[in-house]
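Long-time lurker. I teach an intro course on protein structure, and each term I like to show students one example going from raw sequence to a predicted 3D structure in token notation. This year I'd like something fresh instead of my usual example. Would anyone be willing to generate the tokens for the chain below so I can use it in lecture? Attribution to the forum is fine with me.
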Amino acid sequence: MDSKSLPLLKGGEHQRLKKRRLSEETCKKFDYRVAQMGGRTVQVANYRDGNKVVSQKIRDSKKNFTILGKTKAISKLLFGQHLWRDDGKRLVITEGEIDAMSVSQAQGNKWPVVSVPNGAQGARKSVAANVEWIEHFETVVFCFDQDEPGQDAAKECAAILSPGKAAIARLPLKDANDMLVAGKGKDLIDALWAAKTYRPDGVVDVAAVAKMAAAPMQQGRAWPWKTLTDATYGRRRKELYGFGGGTGCGKSTLFNVIGGIDAPTEGMVFIDEIDVAQPDSYELAWVRCHKVGYIFQAYNILPVLTALENVSLPMLFAGLSGDDAREKAAGILTRVG
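-- Reply from a regular --
Happy to contribute to a lecture. Here you go:
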């Protein structure tokens, strides 16, 4: 028992929670009790490590919470986890014990549902502590509160799991218990099954790519070479084109000319109606900075600068202020880990 532990509360009864529309059967399954503490009627959520109760979350009528037992350990536990085997098709994770029991009751108390112990603010820590167990399930649905903190926490938790495993449920009411109280148990179940798979910004799955590939091709701007235009239907903005070929066939020369590094011996190259073979050095530098992006085989990182400063440097050249460049660079570094 850690230094700040308070003794576990003994006794209590499994009772129907009328205002929550939770049955005695549901409360008994999750060992959620009603007891007396200090002359007050409280609700007791028992948290287990294995089959042993090690922590209790006490809730009074004014929604004040007290942790008994191992106060530090509770953040690493999930309410109701002891009820379910270590794998399965689908797991629902909620933001609170009442919501977990609400989801379970709506599903006939047959399918895996657990809750994080400390609400939205501690959800990520609890999910991370149990990620190995959670990963054994094929699909994990986060059914958190529909307010901004709840949805932000759901995204943070979903990002911890393997890509494509997590989904986030959207409800027409604030939380799962509100759905149950409103007599919308079937709608709650429908929302869980309709939960959309979480995808980080900018990431698409194979199904989305296949749908895009099957869409009719739109004709773009012609390449300088008719055969290439016929093969690719021309060029379109926001698309990526890769060029392959044998050693010495001119791949690097082509891109050096397009990017204004080398001047063509014949013909002209235009970028946004600017002939890159003609501008003076200042204008050409502006075109390279604002219209062309280079990814070199060597990273060309300056060893005297930090990672943040290296990423910020091109943005400073492009005219961003120091603060804006650092903020944007920090965001980029965070995304790539």
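Some talking points for your students: The chain is about 35% helix and 15% strand. The chain has two domains: 18-197, 226-335.
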